[in-house]
Amino acid sequence: MTPVVELSKVRKVYPGPGASGGHVALEDVTFEVARGEFVCVVGPSGAGKSTLLRCLTGLAAPTSGEARFGGEALRSVPAAVGVVFQDYGRSLYPWLTVSRNIELPLKVRGVPRAERSGRTADVLASVGLADAGRKYPWQLSGGMQQRVAIARALVYRPDLLVMDEPFASVDAQTRFGLEDLVLRVRAEFGVTVVFVTHDIDEAVYLADRVVVLSRPPGTVSEVVDISLPGPRDQIATKRMEEFARHREHLLGLVMTR
Question: What are the structural domains, with CATH classification, of the chain?
Answer without folding.
Answer: 5-80+158-256 (3.40.50.300), 92-142+150-156 (no CATH)
